[in-house]
Amino acid sequence: MAERLNLVTGALGFTGSYVVRELLRAGQCVVGTDLPGALANQELRAVARSVGVDTSHPELELVPADLLDPGSLDALFRRPVTHVFHPASLYDYSASLERLRRINVQGTRNLVQALSGADLERFVHWSTCGVFGKPYTAADGQRVNVPFSEESSSPKTEPPGSPGPAGTHLVNEYSQSKWEQEQVMWAAHREDGLPLTVVRPAPIYGPGSDYGHGGIILAIAQGFLPAIPADAKNFITTSVHVADTARLAVFLADRDDTLGEDYDAVDSSIISYHEFLHYIALLTGRKMRDVPVVPMESLRLVMMGGASAWTWLERRLRVPRVRVFEVQSTPYICSSYWLDNAKSRSTGFEYSYPDVREGLKETVAWYRERGWLTDRRRSLYVGREGSKDTPTAP
């Protein structure tokens, strides 16, 4: 067997940096790749170091590459890469479907084409729980509060070319791009024998992120989310700590029985949006009030209209916008997401943060130590066409 050499895409991104950390802690050699601008970004390097990544480690080589530049990807595989960890994607609820497809779908297709001929032992791909679509509600007359599992409709279970999950629908363009991206991976597994394992994380949080769940924490801490409808008690939210996604991926890559399998990455918490947001408010020292007469569905409609207007102001007049206040994220507001982690746990993997409350305490402490809780630059955003410039891991 050849000496193991791990390639990590998006190596200075939120998830990628934790994968690099996990592999280095295991004493393995790592080639970390990211966009040239990301590797030159001293702030990204500082954040990576703050979460435990030694960017000068003798077993780590950082190499610039771009998923949209096949030549730069070909150069990566001149090395004897045996394992690929691919968390790099454009995670941006303000990006257009065209841009999401270009980076997430065509970029991943470029990566798969570049590694043809490589003597790979495993390719671990990051998808998202969003590919399961929108959960049923009581108004649909269907079973409700039944968790999505690996047996649910997904890019793996549906025929090639299927536009989305059976019986429900994808809620935004980001999820659409990730559905199509995962289809590329399963096609490569079936047709070309790519040694694939897929991880589908719940919304990821932890030290180092100011978007997604991290953006929600900052929005609450800075007073942008002072209230929530009381009926948020009836909606489940789901999470996974970033360290657990990295640990799970590395764990699965070392097992023969995980080849060709998919795994939901999610903690064991059953927690409502109401409790989740109020708990963050407690940790950050903010008041969170209940709105008794406005249901979540009404809030979703109001926020969708408000997000559309605010995005227009940001793009046309460069009015700073709260980053997590986006049209594509509003469908999550009145959805009750529950994911089943039984399959990942059946492998013997143990989550370090099975309860989101413990992980949030550590995360908020990290933000506080670094001044993020009060740094408006972390929560407010003005960008070209409403999109961030660099792909980041989901």
Descriptive notes:
- This protein is of the alpha/beta class and 394 residues long.
- The protein has a domain at 5-209 and 237-268 and 335-353: NAD(P)-binding Rossmann-like Domain (Rossmann fold).
- 37% of the residues lie in helices and 13% in strands.
- It is built from 12 helices and 15 strands.
- The chain has helices spanning 14-25, 36-39, 42-50, 70-76, 97-114, 173-192, 213-221, 242-253, 273-284, 296-317, 342-346, 356-369, and strands at residues 5-9, 29-34, 60-64, 83-86, 122-126, 196-201, 204-205, 227-229, 236-237, 240-241, 262-265, 271-272, 289-291, 321-322, 380-381.
- The strands form 5 sheets. A 7-stranded parallel beta sheet has the order 3-2-1-4-5-6-11, sandwiched between helices.
- α7 packs across α9.
- The chain is globular, with a radius of gyration of 20 Å.
- The protein starts with a strand and ends in a 13-residue tail after the last strand.
- The model is unreliable at 385-394 (pLDDT under 50).
